Amino acid sequence: MTFSIANIVVLLIALLHVYILVLEMFLWTTPKGRKAFNLTPEFAEQTKVLAANQGLYNGFLAAGLFWGLWLGPVGFSIKVFFLLCVLVAGLYGAATASKRILFIQAIPAAVGLVLVYLGV
Question: What is the span of the domain harbouring residue 63?
Answer without folding.
Answer: 5-118
